[in-house]
Write a structure and sequence with these properties.
The protein has one domain (2-63, 72-102). The protein has strands at 2-7, 13-21, 24-27, 33-38, 41-49, 54-59, 79-87, 91-99. Helices cover 0% and strands 49% of the residues. Strand 4 and strand 5 (41-49) form a beta hairpin. The strands form 2 sheets. The protein has a 5-stranded antiparallel sheet, with no helix packed on it. Strands 2-7-6 form a 3-stranded antiparallel sheet, with no helix packed on it. The model has no long low-confidence stretch (mean pLDDT 90). The protein has 118 residues and is mainly β.
Length: 118
């Protein structure tokens, strides 16, 4: 499954993109891929674009600058797989998620196209 977002900020800044999960998360040393493992199944996540973005993992808690609503769920045993990137101009984020039914399986990367052409 390809997830694609096209993002334009009003001013340059740091942008985060999140996936909440109860799976165990292992991020590659280069921050360009991760594996999520749960109940004997594995999902590989590949960060295709942009080149300056990196994957990481953190507890599922609001960032310090995020709102903290009083009745927000605790997200016990939940982690956030995140993409962190510096954005200075319009950017296209492309993340490929592929189940690993066996180690030889590797999904074909869909051709790049703007969302307006999907």
């Amino acid at each position: 499954m390809l997830v694609q977002d096209e993002i334009e900020l009003h001013q340059p800044g740091t942008l985060y993109w999140f996936v909440h999960t109860r799976a165990d998360v292992a991020v590659s040393p280069d921050g360009r891929s991760a594996e999520l493992r749960q109940a004997g199944e594995t999902l590989r996540v590949r960060l295709l674009q942009p080149g300056n973005a990196r994957l990481g993992v953190m507890n599922a808690e609001p960032l310090p600058e995020s709102p903290h609503p009083e009745r927000q769920a605790e997200n016990k045993d939940v982690r956030k797989l995140f993409v962190r990137m510096e954005v200075r101009r319009p950017v296209r984020l492309r993340v490929l998620m592929e189940p690993l039914w066996n180690e030889a399986f590797r999904a074909d990367v869909p051709e790049e196209a703007p969302l307006s052409e999907w």
